[in-house]
Write a structure and sequence with these properties.
Radius of gyration: 29 Å
Largest sheet: 6 strands, mixed
Strand content: 25-35%
Shape: flat
Structural class: alpha+beta
Distance between the termini: 96 Å
Number of helices: 3
Helix content: 10-25%
Order of helices and strands: HHEHEEEEE
């Protein structure tokens, strides 16, 4: 008598027992998701892309609504764009192509950012839907980014190209709203 069918049956039984004890297959308590209970790997590229989208929306995609302008108070925009905001805008305007490790890599090194305010003005009051009377405050900045670009090519002949004098100009708008008149802050708050 051959032992091959016995060992095959024993291996199949052992594999079924091992899969049943992993915790992902054969869940007996609580709701059973069936095949959806098996985890599916997600590429880090897509996870990082979603995190960058959330960060951009949270920090830069919304226009803040500030209090009313007071007589004799400051009317100039106070906050220039952050370096992070300028680099995100640079990446959208001039994306780094390549990105194949050991084959074709591009790096931006020695970055210097110069920010200049080119316009700062306030529109007359108008009524915005769902907001009420407000003034739009425009602040436009010209951001010049100086950097050195290093390109590493790994195939067919490995070599490195360095351009020390790269310059990109990015325009960033910081617009926000100022409430107009007596602002009702809601019930129960009296100043």
């Amino acid at each position: 008598m051959s032992r091959t069918p016995f060992f095959a049956a024993f291996a199949a039984l052992t594999a079924a027992a091992a899969l049943a004890n992993t915790g992902c297959i054969g869940i007996t308590q609580g709701p059973n998701l069936g095949a959806l209970a098996i985890p599916i790997p997600v590429s880090p590229y897509f996870q990082d892309k979603k995190e960058v989208e959330h960060w951009t929306h949270e920090r830069y995609a919304r226009a803040p609504i500030l209090g009313p302008l007071t007589a004799g108070g400051p009317t100039a925009a106070l906050d220039p764009p952050s370096d992070d905001e300028v680099m995100l805008a640079l990446e959208r305007a001039a994306p780094v192509s390549g990105g194949l490790p050991m084959l074709h890599e591009i790096q931006r090194n020695n970055v210097t950012i110069v920010k200049e305010k080119i316009a700062d003005y306030i529109d007359p009051p108008r009524v915005y839907p769902l907001l009420g009377p407000a003034q739009l405050h425009h602040a436009h900045y010209k951001c010049t980014v100086y950097y050195s670009e290093k390109v590493r090519v790994g195939w067919p002949v490995p070599h490195t190209l360095i351009d020390e004098d790269e310059v990109e100009v990015i325009y960033v708008d910081h617009n926000h709203l100022h409430m107009v008149g007596n602002v009702d802050t809601g019930p129960g708050t009296h100043y």
